[in-house]
Amino acid sequence: MLSSILAPIFVFAVIVIIHESGHFLLAKATGMKVDEFAVGFGPKICSCRKGETEYSLRLIPLGGYNKIAGMGEDENTDERVFSQKPVWARLIVILAGSIFNVLLAFFIFVGIFAVNGVYSFNHEPMVGSTIEGSSAHDAGLAAGDKIISINGEKVEKWEDISRLTSDKIGRVLLLTYERNKEIATVTVIPQDNGQGRAIVGITPKLTETPVSFPDALVMGFDRCVFIMEQIYEGMAGLVRGEGTGDVAGPIGVARMAGVVADSGMVSLLAFIALLSLNLGFLNLLPIPLLDGGVFWLTVMEGIYGKALPHRALIVIQSVGIIFLLFLFLLAMKNDITAIYK
Fold first, then answer.
1. What is the DSSP string of 158-178?
2. Beta-strand (E) ranges in the chain?
3. Please, are residues 183 and 148 in contact by the beta-carbon 8 Å criterion?
4. Residue 206's beta-bridge partner residues?
5. In DSSP terms, which residues pair with 37 in a beta bridge?
């Protein structure tokens, strides 16, 4: 219960602090004035001031922001405000949040690979673990057992187990296994996994292979690229009207964080990396009100030598608000539907 409450707060806090730190550090590095660095939204819980910047913790832990002086203002002539800085400086400040999110994911994956190595599946019919409450668990099967036959049919590789049980939901099967060079036979009853597939409640044995740090760097990079490609495919499918059920909002993410936290710190860190990549990618979409929208508006200002007319900005921002509202409502619908499934 405690993990389901603390895990989402921890996940959101890490991702938001890293994202906003990117904006903050690059704003400071380019000589901009940052009035406030906030974690969360809504009323202040506590705050302190160091130099010219106020650091605050706010009530709703679902985001955060940097209040950079002069951002969105053209009339301020102070050379330290956002609007008076060169286009290149503004662009790197805008991109910094998403870049920091990608770097966070990259270093998490590198750390996981370097410390834990990789696990490979060698198709051997060896039990890696049993699912508590399953037929196999109740029958006494344990990690290290080698499945020899099911109902008298020989099992030579892991895939044979699925082949011999897939159409036998609710039927009593004789399962023969080897443990410490001794042969034993038990009865198991395959259960429906909720998707019409029979399972007896065992997982395969995985082989751990150590990974050197240079290899971990390459594997971390590859994993980030792979996930970003999946995110892109998901967004493209959303635009085409496909895969809308995969969109989750704060409630859905919080529920997933609680479940993942129960699997251990490594799983939770991998979940943070996944969400961090999602945040970094989504923030770069060319949608007004997101970093990507501000980025392209700033690029256009650099090309034309002046900001877009106020009326044009209102129209563009209105379109962005409508799109974000659509995503929000879709995510909330999916979150609520998932609760009552």
1. HHHHHHHHTT-TT--EEEEEE
2. 34-50, 53-68, 118-121, 127-130, 146-150, 153-154, 173-179, 182-188, 191-192, 198-199, 202-204, 206-209
3. yes
4. 121
5. 55, 66
Note whether 112 and 166 are within 8 A (CB): no
C-alpha gyration radius of the chain: 26
CA–CA dist 148, 146 (Å, integer): 6
- Which 3 state secondary structure label does DSSP give 238? helix
> What is the token pair recorded at 92?
């790197």
Active site residues: 20
SS3 label, residue 26: helix
pLDDT, one tens digit for every residue, the chain (341 residues): 445 667 777 888 888 889 989 999 999 999 998 989 988 888 888 889 998 899 998 887 777 888 888 776 555 667 888 878 888 998 999 999 999 999 999 999 999 999 988 887 778 899 888 888 888 888 888 888 999 999 889 999 998 988 888 888 888 889 999 999 889 999 988 887 666 677 888 888 888 888 899 999 999 999 999 999 888 887 777 666 665 545 555 666 666 676 777 777 888 899 899 889 988 888 888 777 778 878 888 888 788 777 666 565 566 656 656 665 666 666 566 555 655 55
Tell me the C-alpha distance between 85 and 92, whole Å.
11
Closest residue by Cα to residue 74 from 268, 331, 269, 309: 309
29: its two tokens:
């590095």
Which residue has 């259960």 as its token pair?
191
- How far is Cα 79 from Cα 30, in angstroms, rounded to an integer? 11
As a whole number of angstroms, the distance between CA 58 and CA 120 comes to 44
CB within 8 Å of 298: residues ≥ 6 apart: 87, 90, 91, 94
Distance, in Å, from the CA atom of 262 to the CA atom of 2, rounded to the nearest integer, reads 10
